[in-house]
Protein backbone atom coordinates (compact mmCIF):
# COMPACT_ATOMS: atom_id res chain seq x y z
CA UNK A 1 0.00 0.00 0.00
CA UNK A 2 1.53 3.23 -1.08
CA UNK A 3 0.98 5.35 1.99
CA UNK A 4 -0.43 5.23 5.48
CA UNK A 5 -3.64 7.22 5.83
CA UNK A 6 -5.30 8.27 9.08
CA UNK A 7 -7.98 5.94 10.43
CA UNK A 8 -11.43 7.21 9.45
CA UNK A 9 -13.58 4.48 10.95
CA UNK A 10 -13.57 3.37 14.58
CA UNK A 11 -13.20 -0.40 14.92
CA UNK A 12 -15.94 -2.65 16.22
CA UNK A 13 -14.90 -4.81 19.15
CA UNK A 14 -15.57 -8.25 20.54
CA UNK A 15 -14.18 -10.32 23.37
CA UNK A 16 -12.14 -13.48 22.93
CA UNK A 17 -14.27 -16.30 24.39
CA UNK A 18 -11.18 -17.93 25.93
CA UNK A 19 -8.91 -15.23 27.38
CA UNK A 20 -11.35 -12.26 27.30
CA UNK A 21 -8.96 -9.94 25.39
CA UNK A 22 -10.78 -7.26 23.39
CA UNK A 23 -10.29 -7.72 19.62
CA UNK A 24 -10.77 -4.84 17.18
CA UNK A 25 -12.20 -5.48 13.71
CA UNK A 26 -13.35 -3.27 10.84
CA UNK A 27 -15.50 -5.30 8.44
CA UNK A 28 -18.65 -5.67 10.51
CA UNK A 29 -20.70 -6.85 7.52
CA UNK A 30 -18.53 -9.84 6.57
CA UNK A 31 -16.50 -10.74 9.66
CA UNK A 32 -17.54 -13.90 11.48
CA UNK A 33 -14.27 -15.84 12.07
CA UNK A 34 -11.55 -14.46 14.31
CA UNK A 35 -8.20 -15.40 15.84
CA UNK A 36 -7.27 -13.91 19.19
CA UNK A 37 -3.85 -12.25 18.95
CA UNK A 38 -3.17 -13.01 22.62
CA UNK A 39 -4.05 -16.71 23.00
CA UNK A 40 -4.37 -17.71 19.29
CA UNK A 41 -7.85 -19.16 19.77
CA UNK A 42 -9.77 -19.52 16.48
CA UNK A 43 -13.48 -18.83 16.96
CA UNK A 44 -16.71 -17.90 15.20
CA UNK A 45 -18.84 -14.99 16.38
CA UNK A 46 -22.04 -13.97 14.59
CA UNK A 47 -24.40 -11.29 15.79
CA UNK A 48 -25.68 -11.78 19.30
CA UNK A 49 -25.03 -15.55 19.37
CA UNK A 50 -22.41 -16.79 21.84
CA UNK A 51 -18.95 -17.16 20.28
CA UNK A 52 -18.06 -20.73 19.28
CA UNK A 53 -14.45 -21.81 19.81
CA UNK A 54 -13.23 -23.84 16.83
CA UNK A 55 -9.67 -24.56 17.94
CA UNK A 56 -6.35 -23.01 18.85
CA UNK A 57 -3.16 -22.80 16.90
CA UNK A 58 -0.49 -24.89 18.57
CA UNK A 59 2.40 -23.79 16.40
CA UNK A 60 3.29 -20.27 15.43
CA UNK A 61 4.25 -19.86 11.79
CA UNK A 62 7.44 -17.97 11.14
CA UNK A 63 6.02 -14.88 9.46
CA UNK A 64 6.44 -11.18 10.04
CA UNK A 65 3.40 -9.26 8.90
CA UNK A 66 4.36 -6.08 7.03
CA UNK A 67 0.72 -4.91 7.20
CA UNK A 68 -1.49 -5.05 10.28
CA UNK A 69 -5.27 -5.28 10.52
CA UNK A 70 -6.66 -1.76 10.68
CA UNK A 71 -3.97 -0.10 8.56
CA UNK A 72 -5.16 1.99 5.64
CA UNK A 73 -3.44 2.93 2.42
CA UNK A 74 -3.91 3.69 -1.25
CA UNK A 75 -3.58 1.20 -4.12
CA UNK A 76 -4.24 2.25 -7.72
CA UNK A 77 -5.89 5.46 -6.47
CA UNK A 78 -8.37 3.71 -4.14
CA UNK A 79 -8.27 3.77 -0.35
CA UNK A 80 -8.29 0.36 1.33
CA UNK A 81 -8.24 -0.86 4.91
CA UNK A 82 -6.64 -4.16 5.91
CA UNK A 83 -9.51 -6.10 7.52
CA UNK A 84 -7.96 -9.57 7.63
CA UNK A 85 -4.59 -11.28 7.56
CA UNK A 86 -3.85 -14.99 7.18
CA UNK A 87 -0.52 -16.78 7.25
CA UNK A 88 -0.75 -19.82 5.01
CA UNK A 89 1.62 -22.77 4.66
CA UNK A 90 1.95 -25.73 2.35
CA UNK A 91 1.21 -28.99 4.15
CA UNK A 92 4.19 -30.94 2.84
CA UNK A 93 6.91 -28.33 2.49
CA UNK A 94 8.13 -25.14 4.10
CA UNK A 95 6.52 -22.66 1.66
CA UNK A 96 4.42 -20.07 3.47
CA UNK A 97 2.89 -16.74 2.49
CA UNK A 98 0.60 -14.03 3.82
CA UNK A 99 -2.81 -13.15 2.39
CA UNK A 100 -4.57 -9.93 3.31
CA UNK A 101 -8.24 -9.07 2.89
CA UNK A 102 -8.69 -5.43 1.91
CA UNK A 103 -11.89 -3.40 2.20
CA UNK A 104 -12.33 -0.43 -0.13
CA UNK A 105 -13.57 2.32 2.17
CA UNK A 106 -15.76 4.16 -0.35
CA UNK A 107 -17.61 1.22 -1.93
CA UNK A 108 -17.36 -1.69 0.51
CA UNK A 109 -15.74 -3.82 -2.21
CA UNK A 110 -13.13 -6.34 -1.13
CA UNK A 111 -9.81 -7.31 -2.67
CA UNK A 112 -6.97 -9.61 -1.75
CA UNK A 113 -3.30 -8.77 -1.42
CA UNK A 114 -0.82 -11.64 -1.08
CA UNK A 115 2.92 -11.64 -0.48
CA UNK A 116 5.34 -14.53 -0.99
CA UNK A 117 9.09 -14.06 -0.60
CA UNK A 118 8.82 -10.32 -1.29
CA UNK A 119 6.55 -10.69 -4.33
CA UNK A 120 3.14 -9.00 -4.05
CA UNK A 121 -0.05 -9.91 -5.91
CA UNK A 122 -3.28 -7.85 -5.95
CA UNK A 123 -6.53 -9.69 -6.76
CA UNK A 124 -10.02 -8.25 -7.27
CA UNK A 125 -13.29 -10.02 -8.04
CA UNK A 126 -14.63 -9.70 -11.57
CA UNK A 127 -18.03 -10.20 -13.14
CA UNK A 128 -16.41 -11.67 -16.27
CA UNK A 129 -16.83 -15.38 -16.89
CA UNK A 130 -14.19 -17.49 -18.63
CA UNK A 131 -14.22 -20.97 -20.11
CA UNK A 132 -11.43 -23.41 -20.88
CA UNK A 133 -11.52 -23.83 -24.65
CA UNK A 134 -8.56 -26.15 -25.21
CA UNK A 135 -7.36 -29.20 -23.34
CA UNK A 136 -4.21 -28.71 -21.28
CA UNK A 137 -1.01 -28.56 -23.34
CA UNK A 138 2.00 -30.71 -22.39
CA UNK A 139 3.20 -27.87 -20.15
CA UNK A 140 -0.25 -27.78 -18.43
CA UNK A 141 -1.28 -24.46 -19.97
CA UNK A 142 -4.85 -23.88 -21.11
CA UNK A 143 -6.62 -21.24 -23.18
CA UNK A 144 -9.28 -19.16 -21.47
CA UNK A 145 -11.85 -17.27 -23.50
CA UNK A 146 -14.55 -14.89 -22.29
CA UNK A 147 -18.03 -16.47 -22.18
From TrEMBL:
The name this protein goes by in its record: DUF4178 domain-containing protein
Amino acid sequence: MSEHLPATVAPAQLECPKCKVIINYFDTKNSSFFVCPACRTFFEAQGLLPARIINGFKKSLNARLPLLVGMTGTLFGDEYRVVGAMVKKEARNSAQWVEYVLLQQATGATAQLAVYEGHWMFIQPTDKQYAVTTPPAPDNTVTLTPC
